[in-house]
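Researcher: Quick test of sequence recovery. Tokens follow.
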């Protein structure tokens, strides 16, 4: 087989898209915007491509008088390691950011574990009690909260979603774009390969639930971007058969050990959610450090340790605290200024040179849980 090399054009594109690690480290701590689209008639009446939103009379009266509103944030789960503490901290951050814009009482609700039906029931209970004047929702998936989102909007309650691309009529979907994320991750790997003189050909993709829309997008574009740059790259798994690791740490670790034993030629493993650190542990336990590398999403101490050890190439922080905090600020901007805040989310790549700052940011976030 002819030896393939990473094309010069692909490397140039990767370097341009990624930029330097220093540039990433210099970015502000939050991407939550403070201004957006000024809409005529907002917040009382807003015309969008899907129809016209009319603010509920009881909420409109509060706004006219400058009275506090009841802001509710509903998110996937309160008991998931890494994810839940960062979302709880982001909720608090968002409420603090929102208060100077428009006063509000903030409440967060969530099932202990992912349960779309329970999440909807919790929202319905708050709605029936008249305790929602504006709401931020982080859905379990792209479809399970669409009906309740549209119901809230139909009743004149502003909705902003985050974290997962949604199919409802919310004002803003503050979230990553999966196809762009996967491409970005692949470009990071290509740049790292060039910088470190690595000739890697065998890849795999994995995740806690590889069937999810966001997981599919991250895996698909990662695969396509690598193959475009390395024509004879081999993918043991793709979005069609992504390795399902589960979200449970012990199970994920064992799944990766079994996968590595069965596929001794694999060189790079992409994890599209919170499990890369368990792949890192499996690699180290099997004496494969320096032979197998990983990339993963979100921030954790385990991933940062592995980056320092040279096992993990990079982690891609999708800024969970920002996703959790966006809704409160967006509600305040809409009700006070008639502005609809945009989706400004981008990934934050953390390489070895960025680990120290990433540790400090993670420690700060976790201390606020």
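Model:
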């Amino acid at each position: 087989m002819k030896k393939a090399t990473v094309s010069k054009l692909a490397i140039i594109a990767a370097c341009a898209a990624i930029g330097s690690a220093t540039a990433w480290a210099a970015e502000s701590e939050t991407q939550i915007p403070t201004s957006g689209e000024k809409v005529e008639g907002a917040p009382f009446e807003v015309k969008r491509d899907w129809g016209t939103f009319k603010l509920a009379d009881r909420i409109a009266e509060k706004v006219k008088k400058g009275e506090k509103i009841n802001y509710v944030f509903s998110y996937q789960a309160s008991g998931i390691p890494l994810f839940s503490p960062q979302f709880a901290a982001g909720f608090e951050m968002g409420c603090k950011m929102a208060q100077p814009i428009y006063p509000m009482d903030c409440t967060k609700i969530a099932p202990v574990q992912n349960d779309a039906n329970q999440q909807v029931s919790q929202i319905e209970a708050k709605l029936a009690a008249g305790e929602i004047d504006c709401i931020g929702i982080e859905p379990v998936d792209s479809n399970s909260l669409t009906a309740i989102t549209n119901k809230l909007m139909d009743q004149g309650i502003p909705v902003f979603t985050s974290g997962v691309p949604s199919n409802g009529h919310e004002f803003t979907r503050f979230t990553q774009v999966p196809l762009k994320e996967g491409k970005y991750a692949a470009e990071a790997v290509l740049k790292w390969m060039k910088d470190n003189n690595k000739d890697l050909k065998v890849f795999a993709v994995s995740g806690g639930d590889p069937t999810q829309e966001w997981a599919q997008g991250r895996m698909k574009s990662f695969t396509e971007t690598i193959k475009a740059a390395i024509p004879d790259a081999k993918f043991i798994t793709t979005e069609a058969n992504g390795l399902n690791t589960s979200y449970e740490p012990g199970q994920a670790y064992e799944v990766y050990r079994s996968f590595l034993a069965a596929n001794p030629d694999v060189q790079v493993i992409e994890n599209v959610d919170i499990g890369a650190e368990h792949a890192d542990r499996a690699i180290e336990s099997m004496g494969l450090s320096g032979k197998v590398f990983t990339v993963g999403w979100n921030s954790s101490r385990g991933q940062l340790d592995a980056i320092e050890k040279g096992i993990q190439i990079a982690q891609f922080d999708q800024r969970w605290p920002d996703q959790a905090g966006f809704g409160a600020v967006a509600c305040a901007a809409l009700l006070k200024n008639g502005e609809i805040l945009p989706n400004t989310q981008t990934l934050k790549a953390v390489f070895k040179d960025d680990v120290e700052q990433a540790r400090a940011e993670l420690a700060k976030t976790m201390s606020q849980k």
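The CA atoms of residues 146 and 168 lie 5 Å apart.
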